[in-house]
Design goal:
- The protein has 13 helices and 8 strands.
- It is of the alpha/beta class and 381 residues long.
- Strand 4, helix 4 and strand 5 form a beta-alpha-beta unit.
- The protein binds nicotinamide-adenine-dinucleotide and zinc ion.
Length: 381
């Protein structure tokens, strides 16, 4: 019997703003902590080490994570992880740190070869410091390899415990608040229009969209707004829960290839694709019924935007997203980022082919050709 419709969530989620203290109750003897130098400087790493010590756990630390981690960083961490004999794996940082820990876990498991079933999986705890990727609850890890960004997708790498302690995100730079916040919105929108969307993922995606529209601008303009911070963090986790079950779409495929090629952050790359991708999916210039347009119209209704028809609803939603991006200081197009047209044009075909192969493309509501993807890139320029 093949059972296809399912909603799976491996991670227990704790979301109190002092929940990092829960590390004091961690079962185990040795922890391997994956993080970066900023988390070390801000003192979060030491807090984690201290709390684990209270649980009787000694820690070894890997702070070699850099944004958009590549396979070299994962290998470096993997070597240290293997030497550590850890029974607890802790990731503390943004999506880059959590994805590196997932990569380490994945390759340690695979290296066990045919004995993989005997592999002793560590307790995996993720503490996100951005809101964000939702990586604390997803099956996804995005790693940069020679051929660009590669998604590893496996239930095995989803964290067992997600600790959402919003005190860990209070020093996020403004630009990162904007980028990561828009990433949350794109996760929710793509999960909502995905061909694998269900009532379960819809509920989470709708709530995430609402929370982002109500709180992201507040957080962007006042980093001290702790209520907005909590809400955006919850939205990030909810959008992660949605897309780990429904998958994403071509917005992410295009952003992976573009961000990898021009070294633009994941969130900003997604933001730059968003308007053109929604217009492509909704086929607004036509008049035939369109699934994605109907779904965007439903999101417009969630936000109580004006609309007499579904098509108007879709249009209102796209406009509201564009307004939000503008208010977050996000560029209108790729040209404004200072990327030269000739350089962009030369990379177009390679990026479109990579986006076509991306794991997020098959669940997009409208199946594109490589030429369609090139056309979307041109529009974003
Ligand atoms: N696994 C998934 O499900 C998933 C989903 C989307 C994106 N991703 C991947 O995640 C990565 C992006 O993660 P991200 O957007 O969270 O950014 P990030 O982890 O790369 O962090 C961005 C920058 O912000 C800094 N930073 C992080 N937390 C901070 C804090 N609390 N205070 C001050 N500075 C802080 C980091 O040191 C870094 O310089 C990309 O590689 C992307 O492809 C993964
Ligand atoms: Zn994303």
């Amino acid at each position: 019997m093949v059972i296809e419709d399912k909603f799976i969530l491996r991670s227990k989620v704790y979301f109190n703003n002092r929940s990092i203290h829960l590390l004091k109750q961690t079962p185990g003897t040795r922890a391997f902590i994956v993080s970066d130098s900023i988390m070390e400087t801000l003192g979060y790493l030491q807090t984690a080490v201290d709390h684990l010590r209270e649980a009787g756990i000694t820690s070894s630390v890997f702070t070699g994570v850099r944004p958009d981690p590549d396979i070299g960083i994962v290998s470096e961490g993997l070597k240290l992880y293997m030497e550590s004999s850890a029974d607890v794996l802790v990731a503390i940082g943004g999506g880059s740190a959590i994805d590196t820990a997932k990569g380490i876990l994945y390759f340690a498991w695979k290296l066990a070869g045919n004995g993989a079933s005997a592999f002793k999986r560590p307790l995996f705890i993720a503490i996100p410091s951005t809101s964000g990727t939702g990586s604390e609850v997803t099956d996804f890890s995005v790693i940069t390899a020679d051929e660009g960004k590669v998604c590893i997708v496996d239930e095995f790498i989803a964290p067992d415990i997600a600790i959402l302690d919003s005190t860990c995100i209070q020093h996020v730079p403004r630009r990162v608040v904007a980028d990561t916040g828009i990433d949350v919105l794109v996760h929710a929108i793509e999960a909502y229009v995905s061909s694998k969307a269900t009532d379960f993922t819809d509920a989470l995606a709708e709530k995430a969209v609402k929370l982002i529209f109500e709180n992201l601008e507040k957080l962007y303009s006042d980093a001290k707004d702790s209520d907005a911070r909590d809400r955006v963090q919850n939205a990030s986790c909810m959008a992660g829960m949605a897309f780990t079950n429904s998958n994403l779409g071509i917005n992410h495929s295009l952003a992976h290839a573009f961000g990898g090629m021009f070294h633009i952050s994941h969130g900003r790359s997604n933001a730059l694709m968003l308007g053109a991708v929604m217009e492509y999916n909704a086929e607004l210039s036509g008049s035939a019924a369109n699934y994605a347009a109907d779904r965007y119209a439903r999101l417009a209704a969630v936000l109580q935007l004006p609309a007499r028809t579904k098509r108007e609803g879709a249009f209102s939603f796209i406009q509201a997203v564009n307004r939000l991006k503008k208010n977050l200081g996000i560029e209108d197009n790729i040209r404004t980022l200072g990327i030269d047209w000739k350089e962009f044009e030369n990379a177009l075909e390679q990026m479109a082919e990579a986006a076509m192969r991306d794991r997020c493309t098959p669940t997009n509501p409208r199946q594109p050709s490589t030429e369609d993807l090139m056309q979307i890139y041109r529009k974003c320029y």
